[in-house]
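Task 17 of the worksheet. Students: predict the tertiary structure of the chain below and write it out as structure tokens. Keep your answer in the requested format; marks are given for formatting as well as content.
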Amino acid sequence: MRLGLYVNLYADKDDRPRLADAVEQVRLAEQAGFAWAVLGERHLHRPGYHEALTSLAYLAAHTDRIGLATAGLIAPVHHPVHLAETLAHIDVLSGGRLTAGFVLGYRPEEFTLYGTQPHERVSRFEECVDLVTRLWTEDKVTHEGRWHRVEDAFLSPRPVQSPRPRIWNGGRVPAALERTAYLCDGWTTSFNETDEELPQKIALYRAAPRGPRSLGAEVIVCREGYAAPTTQQARAALERPLRRLYDAYGDWKRTSADAARYAQPWEDIAARSVIGSTAECQDRIARYAEMGADALVLRIQPPGMPQADALKAIEGFGSLLGGGLTT
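Model answer:
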């Protein structure tokens, strides 16, 4: 089972735009054997949130082997040509380590910020992913779409990876799973998808038709994660900062159907997470493998968690990966 480290990009209003903590975590994760450092995208967060693409390039410059992924960029608010060019260059700079993960987005204020509307997001997403894929793989692209028009467009340089970097997409409803199967190469679950829901959704995703440009159908399960010597130590490190993050999500997701999941008791959160002793975490990882997951992305550091606690959790998971970590 491959593991990804979901990197905390929330800035501290007293200490920004410093990314030294993220670099330290990702370099430790690289040593531990993690497959990816994974970054998200957020806007209009008052204390600050580091921009994802420039942060990805920064991490590329400070690492050697670990994959660099997004989960995910809000595709409907980006111009696809600029997005394709920037991501291609990150793949070049990193020596072919990019995985591009997208999402539809859900915050009305983020769409307004970029001059788009929530009701446009599906058609904008589909057009964006199609154009990014074509620009990465074709010598010349002409496209007349609903939102964008290009004529004889091309990228130089194109991505290092052949035929192109893999593309992930998030989503939880059947239409999103079918869209992901057709346009993309991997499905990233929600962090709050329950274990009871996962097997049916994995089966639906894998059964959906693949598009002509698809490179496969991998399942990447996103989970809160913390590995410690004991369950009590894991909960003590994670619960308070995670609760603060969930309180914020309750506001951000006020228009989403899953908003109530961020106000659930700890036992419900733990039941859909990889939190506990290293032995318990190992059992949880094996359970997701049995469900059909190809990889896990673990969010181990909500904003407010001390750096020392985050590093300990990376070491804990590293012991399961056989990384032989020392700090």
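Marker's comment: The domain at 2-321 is CATH 3.20.20.30 (TIM Barrel). The CA atoms of residues 79 and 128 lie 7 Å apart.
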